[in-house]
Amino acid sequence: MSETVERDYADLAHVLFCTKLRAEGTPSPDDLRSAIEAELQLHDPTACRCEVAQEAGDHPDSYRERMRWCLDVVRTAFPSLH
Q1: What is the pTM of this model?
Q2: Contact 6, 36 (CB under 8 A)
């Protein structure tokens, strides 16, 4: 967990964006943290940023909605980040 806590909101939002979690399922903060940790075990944050950039170009409308959700829930799940 210490590796994740050292990251900022944007980093974690990009990582969350790449997970299978969706807003419709209303995941708990624990679910969010677990999904982010699992994704970080699979992919480097740079790879996640690249995937997010590709999605933004391919599907800008759904990208905006999902990224907004990711940023909002990361702030809830990681309140101690600055």
Answers
A1: 0.86
A2: no
